[in-house]
Amino acid sequence: MRVGVLALQGTFIEHIGALRQLGVEAPAIRLPRELDTLDGLIIPGGESTTMLRLMKSFGLTQPINELAQLGLPIWGTCAGMILLAKDVSNYEMETLGLMHAKVRRNAFGRQVDSFEADLEVPLLGEEAFHAVFIRAPIIEETGPDVEVLSRLPDGTIVAIRQHQLLACAFHPEFTGDSRFHSYFLDMVSQQLQHNHEDRILRGSDPRS
Ligand code: GLN
């Protein structure tokens, strides 16, 4: 399994480390051709406008969009989540627009722009997930095909899934708790299995 991490800016080293700990090949992605052989992609935290600018100048936005349409699992954390969302309520910016969600950048204001919280994430089990929020966005609205995976105690949505797309407002790559990464890897395995079955049905799998 090969899960690439977009490595233009931000917390890509931490994501690569987390994936390697789980025994997964995790190439750093900077060029469009490096996307070719991936089974999944992570867009890390960082600064979303800078990352977007670099993605555009490296010619990455269109190929990432196309791969997402073909079902490539993609996970965006923090700035990565902003880039996946269709709408940003408080900034004029052109995102990848893949997830039916409206997000708000830097939603926690100055005083608490960084904080940590123990989150309930039911699909990761009973134990709370210790989450680090750094100048984090929040999710203000979700479309009908979006599943809410976690909320802050006040009800604010901070993690969502839409089919093969996953997004969270915090940084699971910082805490050493690998459950979120394992969950994404399960999504990637399921998609690989689905692609394999699809090829068998269409009679085009060399292994069948
Ligand atoms: N505040 C950043 C942005 O708007 C996101 C912060 C992060 O990724 N930790 O892009």
Topology diagram in text:
Layout: E1 3-6, H1 12-21, E2 28-29, E3 40-43, H2 48-57, H3 61-69, E4 74-77, H4 79-84, E5 85-88, E6 99-104, E7 114-119, E8 129-134, E9 138-142, E10 147-151, E11 157-162, E12 165-168, H5 179-201
Parallel strand pairs: 1-2, 1-3, 3-4, 4-12, 5-6
Antiparallel strand pairs: 6-9, 7-8, 10-11, 11-12
Bound molecules: glutamine.
Write a compact overview of the structure shown.
This protein has 5 helices and 12 strands. The chain has a 7-stranded mixed β-sheet with strand order 2-1-3-4-12-11-10. A 3-stranded mixed β-sheet has the order 5-6-9. It has a two-stranded antiparallel sheet with strand order 7-8. The longest helix has 23 residues, at 179-201.
Structure description:
By secondary structure, the chain is an alpha/beta fold. It has one domain (3-204): Rossmann fold (3-Layer(aba) Sandwich), CATH 3.40.50. It contains 5 helices and 12 strands. The strands form 3 sheets. It has a 7-stranded mixed sheet with strand order 2-1-3-4-12-11-10. The chain has a 3-stranded mixed sheet with strand order 5-6-9. α1 links the parallel β1 (3-6) and β2. The protein is globular and about 55 Å long. Bound molecules: glutamine. The site of glutamine has 11 residues, from α4.
